[in-house]
Amino acid sequence: MKKMIVILFLIPSFSLLAQRRDSVVLREVIVSDTPLFDKETAGGKETKVDSLVLSENLNHTLSELLSENTSVFIKAYGRGSMATASFRGTAPSHTQVLWNGLSINSPMLGMVDFSLLPVYFIDDLKLKHGGASQEDIGGALGGSISMGNHADWNNKQSGRFVQGFGSYNTWEEFGQFNVGNNRFQSKTRAYYTYSKNDFPFINDSKTGAPRERSQHGEYTMYSMMQELYGKINAHNTVSFKGWFHSSDRAIPRLNSFEGPDSANVNTQIDKTVRLHGSWEHHYTSGTVTTSIGANLQDLDYFLRNLVSGDGFQSGVYSQSQSTSIISKVQLDHELSRKASFRFTVNANHHDVTTADSVKKTGYDKSRNELLMFLGYYHTFWSRLNIRASLRQDVIDGKSIPLIPYLGADFKLLPDHNVFLKANITRNYHVPTLNDLYWQPGGNILLRPEHGTTQELTLAWEKNVSGFTIESQLTGYHSNITDWILWVPNIKGYWQPFNVQKVISKGIELTIKTKFQIGKVQFVVNGNYALTRSLNYGDKNTWGDESYGKQLVYIPVHSGNVFAHLRYKKYSFTWQHNAYSTRFTTSSNELSRQDHLPTYFMNQVYAAREFTLGKVTLETQLKVYNLFDEYYNSVLARRMPGRNYMLLLMMRI
Hints:
- The protein is mainly β.
- Helix content is 6%, strand content 59%.
């Protein structure tokens, strides 16, 4: 029924498109990057995901795109299940996620489930690594990820429709309709996906390693987004964006589960409403931006067991709601051609209510935030950029220590684009409401996490006769005190404690190339990350065997390659990922149950375009896990083998 609603919603839009009479604009793929030498990003590492990568991953979730094309490690609990991020070896709550400047991290959990964010709804994607994120938001010990939407003021009428069919009874639809002129623009998007998700696998968690089929993994998701943009005059622009998302997911049991099919039946329902309104005023020397938004999240989790004579009975019936109201005023002012400053004030309010009607537990708490940022940017002698900034956050009336940042870019050679980038910053992350108040387990005695980060980058770019190459080699070191970690306690439930110290250090290498041989266009991107995230907690608490060891589920080595070639109306894409051993215990044991072995993942996409009058059609075949790799992302949760997706796309 829900799928029919989405289809009926799209039919009128495409009926209008079929009646348009202006000329057809064929697809243009624009590959854009963040400038390596810019005073506003001085000293920091900022990565803008290519529009081509977004286009090739259009039907994926943000978790899949990030794991396959960036240095961010994604911990996925299975196909269609929750996926969290580890940015530079940090915890999921240390990655801050913004949508058009609005923080969408849950105030309850402190993190974002990236499996619930379809790439269909993202126009721009930008990552700020480490201290560079401090400009947008505090608390991002690992970094920040920003999703953006924007207007195309040259658009009159356009749209697209995608129909997908895949393995394990998977299918999806997406439609987008854009209409407007040089004063007003509207974008409407709708998305639906369903999968029975019953893939076969070899269950090595059971004696004899029987071949089984995944059960209780079915999921349904749908989303709608409406964007409105208006130019009041040459100096004032307003916008409104609304995004609704709903998912209903059955959660597969662990592969080691030996009980009957009617036991431990898990279901999770997520519903989210995000609203964002903004006004931009441009004057001679700068811009004032005012915005207000809301992030409303419902998360319901149920665990049921079949009781003879009584039917299914709930063992857990947990319902949680969070409401975040976020307002922001930002002033960007040019003092001169080489100097500028930015001043930002956020006033945020969060409410969280959670209750388990079976266990009779829960809490009702709120949090108020006043967040202030002041940054100064200056260019000297056309070869040196300096950024100095201060952030002051006030949480529930208590000021946290000042967060300073100092960064610089230096052009090493006057006639060549070779740059040295460096920064040093402090950061601070307060416990989430779950950390403090979850029942049972919340710990109101938790101390905030805080630390310092140093970073050094060598960047280089060159363009010779159409061959473009860009590379960045970054080394970083973070010393984080009072790291918050959930561990089992002596009473049998999980509870958060402060770890005395965690050292996160590593190297990141990024290479991007674009070139053409004859009529064949090539784009090749590569990322490699060496990540050491080491536990230096109190030996009396953690034991000698855990001291100085890698944190669980963080791979020391990870990397990916994206290779795309295009010839006339044909295109081919190869995606490769590799992850080293990940430990599942703090002592880093190499026993069968205490680590996940190295694995390599390969995916290929082949596409062909057709032009029929004013309509461009494209067929795309995607083969995932090309070599049928046998792997886990999380212990005792098997991932699917080789599988397929056929996409039929129409653009007008």
